[in-house]
Amino acid sequence: MNHFKTSMHMSAQKLFKKALALFARDERAVAAVEFALILPVLLFTYIGTAEVSTLITMDRKVAVVAGTVGDLVARADGTLQNSILQDYFEAAEFTMRPYPSGSLKQVVTGVYVDEDGKATVRWSEGFNGGVEHARNSVLVIPPQMAALSKESHLIVGEASNVWQPALDYIFTSGVVLQKTYYYRPRFDAEITIN
């Protein structure tokens, strides 16, 4: 009887090993399992690539807005009408299309840089919630720009916008994209807003 139990136990072991070997060699549905395992990675990569592409494009558009408005103001000869400046701001909003421009804030500022490289605000105009710099306040500018602009005027163009990803699991409040550009007036004279 013990011999019978032992042979039954050995037969069960052989049967289990044989079944395990058959299972290991069976390739049916392997592709489906592999696809199910890789699908989340593929989806995350695809959506992440699309979101990063949108972020980079919006960042470039914010840079174009800040640069364009600052450059247009720097082209003025002496005095620029406030109504024309508002037109510049409104026209720059179209640059953001097809992305939202509701949170696009713009500021343009005229500063004078003294012989020590200190930039003092002469005037500042904001648009769509852009915070103006206080008159006669000191505006921090890059040291290289201060060194190149001593005893002259500068126009500072600033723009910011919020990028809100489609799937906001990580960035729930969005990412603020902000750009600042500096321009010397074309006619080497102070530009005022009237």
Write the layout of secondary structure elements.
Blueprint: H1 2-25, H2 30-74, E1 79-80, H3 82-93, E2 105-113, E3 119-127, E4 138-139, H4 143-148, E5 152-163, E6 175-183, E7 192-193
Parallel strand pairs: 1-7
Antiparallel strand pairs: 2-3, 2-5, 3-4, 5-6
Helix pairs in contact: 2-3
Overview of this structure, please?
It contains four helices and seven strands, in the order ααβαβββαβββ. It is of the alpha+beta class and 194 residues long. The protein has one domain (2-193). The strands form two sheets. It has a five-stranded antiparallel sheet, covered by helices on one side. A two-stranded parallel ribbon has the order 1-7. It is rod-shaped, with a radius of gyration of 32 Å. The mean pLDDT is 87.
- Oligomeric state of shown chains: single chain
Roughly what percent helix?
40-55%
Global geometry: rod-shaped
Beta-strand content bin: 15-25%
Task: Give unreliable regions as ranges.
Answer: none
Sheet of most strands: 5 strands, antiparallel
SSE series:
HHEHEEEHEEE
**What's the number of extended β-strand segments?**
7
Give the N-terminus to C-terminus distance in angstroms: 113 Å
Number of helices: 4
Question: What structural class should be given to the helix and strand makeup?
Answer: alpha+beta
How many distinct folded domains?
1
**What's the alpha carbon Rg, rounded to whole Å?**
32 Å
Order of strands, main sheet, comes to: 4-3-2-5-6
Calculate the mean pLDDT score and round it. Answer: 87
